[in-house]
Amino acid sequence: MITEHHRSPDEIAYRNLKPTIDRTYSKGRFIAIHNQQVVGDAATLPELLAKLAAEGLNSKECLAVQSGVDYPEFAYILLSGAKT
Amino acid sequence: MTPALIQRNPYRGVPERAFVRVRLLDTKGMERDLELLADTGNPCAIIVGRNDTAFMAPIPGYSVWSNFGALTAGWLQVVIPEIGFDQQVLGYASDEVVSAAQESDPDFGGLIGLPLLRMMQYGGDSDSFWIRPAGK
User: Fold this and answer.
1) How far is A3 from chain B (nearest CA, A)?
2) Which of residues 51-70 of A touch B (CB under 8 A)?
3) I want to staple B82 with a disulfide (CB 3.0 to 4.6 A). Which of A10, A83, B7, B100 is the partner?
4) pLDDT over 90 at A3, yes or no
5) Averaged over B20-29, what is the pLDDT?
């Protein structure tokens, strides 16, 4: 049975921040969200991780997304064995 | 003459499936080669087994729910040397999805979906499935 997916506060914040992120940053740029706010951006993921570390942020407590990219909320995978 | 950059794989499994060979790299340079069932109907770029979450960067990605349950999201460095592909891609982990792919061939280590396939050229004929670098 398909039930509602539990989302982290940063994932929920990303839904609201996405239009602003897509307007502000070039497509494909990596963005970090922490405590429901954008806390960093970089051209590559390693650069973003280095920035977060330099600012004393634990990257595992952040969310990384790319500007201008649409992520699926739900994926229907057409393989046998699904537990719907 | 410069050789064509292409990876061509004969269909494999029962029933026969298209697949792509990729390499995952972690931040310490560890490598893992995987054969991924190609599924253009899949909205996830790449789905691997939970053991391969070790190759995910230490920062979460936007997770997704599926008809196989929750898929853990994380950033993978995906390399395909034959076509010069090397990018950070949002991937997902699910042993259930990998098990379903392995019903066709036990060597499949996951799925490659449309978001990743469209970052290159892909196609096939009666014998094989191929990928090439993205067109300019």
Assistant:
1) 9
2) 52, 59-60, 62-66, 69
3) B7
4) no
5) 94
Residue A58: the pLDDT is: 97
* Spatial separation of the C-alpha atoms in residues B62 and B41, rounded to whole Å: 20
CA distance B100 to B104: 8
B67 touches chain A (CB under 8 A): yes
Assigned token pair, B86: 């090397």
Strands B108-113 and B85-93: unpaired
Reply yes or no: is the peptide bond before residue A19 cis, omega within 30 of 0: no
For B58, which of A60, A78, A81 is closest by C-beta distance?
Answer: A60
In this complex, the residue of B57, B68, B101 whose CB is nearest that of residue A49 is: B57
- Count of beta carbons in the 10 Å neighbourhood of residue A83: 11
pTM for the whole thing? 0.92
ipTM, interface predicted TM-score of the complex: 0.88
pLDDT (tens digit, 9 = 90+) per residue, B63-93? 999 999 989 899 999 999 999 999 999 999 9
Instruction: Map out the domains of chain B with their CATH numbers.
Output: 18-132 (2.40.70.10)
With cut-offs at 50, 70 and 90, classify the pLDDT of residue B2: low
Mean pLDDT for A4-20 is 90
Min CA distance, A61 vs chain B (Å)?
A: 7
**Which chain B residues contact residue A46 at CB under 8 A?**
27
State the Cα–Cα distance between residues B110 and B84, nearest whole angstrom: 21
